[in-house]
Amino acid sequence: MESSVLQLTDSTWVFPCHPDPEKLQPNVGIIISGGQTVLVDGGNSPHHARSILNALDELNAPPVRHIIYTHSHFDHFFGAQVFGAPAIAHELCRQRVQEMALKPWSYSYIEDEIQQTPERAIGLRNIARVMDEWRGFRVIVPTMTFTAGMRLYLGDLRVDIEHVGGQHSPDSSVVRVPSEGIIFVADAYYPPVPDYRQPGDTADFDLLARLLADETIQHIVDGHSTPLVRDVALALLAKREG
């Protein structure tokens, strides 16, 4: 049976994004070392997260120790409750997630919100579209936060989290595994979300170039496309900048 995950290095895998962008299922990073598993993001819904959990079983992965939230957009953390693990995030991300946790999430609540704030309609309808069940749903609020960055160790494996901000979401962070040459950038360099996007908004190639200035990085995983090796990412960056 073909694996549902893509192995990138000895200690890192990706549960890949759905090929249909309408599904809003982003890449979820999996880091396994020292008898521990850390996830980079937690899925867009409990349904999505259960598929990730099945993939962890395929890998015989140890229990999830932490989930790192890259930013506070629902598709990156609305599945976190499935894993039974605490979340880590930038302090602004935690504030935003806390606000979302206080909402009485349901299809009727979403429709009411659309009526009151029609400028948010696209994002709210996206949530309604991917959530197949609201019973028992809860938002997992991060219990560990940082300002500039944070470092974790999974046995001898170092994991670095860095707040980078950006136009997509000011609470965006990236996750590096230096010894593996990998960086999970999620949506950090993407344009603003559709609800707030203006004509002419494009990806933040300056941010991407700054991240790739670290020559040890060999694998780049963003939120909603196929992971790239360094040479391909640099070629695409040069083409778009030109």
Q: Quick recap of the structure?
A:
The protein is α/β, with parallel strands linked by helices and 242 residues long.
Structure description:
With 242 residues, the protein is an alpha/beta fold. It has one domain: 4-Layer Sandwich (Metallo-beta-lactamase, Chain A), CATH 3.60.15.10. It has six helices and 13 strands. A seven-stranded mixed sheet has the order 1-2-3-4-5-6-7. The chain has a six-stranded mixed sheet with strand order 8-9-10-11-12-13. Helix 3 runs antiparallel to helix 4 and helix 5 runs antiparallel to helix 6. The protein starts with 5 loop residues before the first strand and ends with a helix. The model has no long low-confidence stretch (mean pLDDT 95).
